[in-house]
Write a structure and sequence with these properties.
Largest sheet: 4 strands, mixed
Number of strands: 4
Radius of gyration: 25 Å
Number of helices: 8
Order of helices and strands: HHHHHHHEEHEE
CATH class of the largest domain: Mainly Alpha
Strand order of the largest sheet: 1-2-3-4
Oligomer: single chain
Distance between the termini: 17 Å
CATH topology of the largest domain: Alpha-lytic protease prodomain-like
Shape: elongated
Length: about 300
Amino acid sequence: MSTRNEQLEKKIRDKKWVAFTSILAAISITFAKLFVGIQTNSLGILAEAAHSALDLIAAIVTFFAVHFSDKPADAKHHYGHGKIENVSALFETILLVITCVWIFYEATERLVSGKSHVQPNVWAFAVILFSILVDLSRSKALTKVAQRYNSQALEADALHFSSDVWSSIVVLLGLGFVSFGYIWVDSIAAMIVAVFVLIACYRLGKRSIDALIDISLPQNETDWLHHYFQNLPKPVNGYHGLRTRMSGSVRYIDVDLEMDQTITIQEAHILAEKVISDITTKFPEAKVHIHTDISNDEHLHIH
């Protein structure tokens, strides 16, 4: 029990630390971009500043989400608090969509009016290069912890930082063109940034909504479960009623196993425990419930 508690504490500590350091990174990037964007009047950099500002909000939300999502089940939350991560990820998506609308509006306004006095300087290039380096570092760190603990909130944060890398490269190229007198490229670069962000929004939003409305596990994971149950040896005669869903990083798996009538209750219990062990080895944070049908009047629930 103590080992399990130590593992849980380490998980919470790792997730909170990587989320906290992401907040610090987002603060430095946001204010650097905002300052240089105002100084140069570059919509591309200001769009990046707005993007980073929302990343900062998202990082703060993620920090609290990964803290509360790992709280154990209680009287009001029988299935734990995992869906806080899914709500957090969806909130981040909505913020990013709002940013994209503003970027498209402002870019269109500049292109139509022709009023865009962009003044790129060495600091503009420096802040974007600095942003790319920080974003690469944070994306790698967040992805590593997100994969280790299957955290959707941290994965969402990593997606934000990784999309920032590509959008920053676009802005960097836009500044290069502006330096040669092609002022309108700055607005086009801002629009391309918005497209990158919208693509990220679609992927993140779909995953968040799927989890919130209890869509089953990803197809590859469901296929693995079907293959596993189909190849169980006797005395298992078959299975039915496989039900799966996600709640934060936790997978909930329920299934009915059809047992041969010659098996005893004790043997059925041992076999079900073996099945649970196999599944949780594949999916460490899974909560598995096995219902065994031994005969017309003998049933056993194990989880």
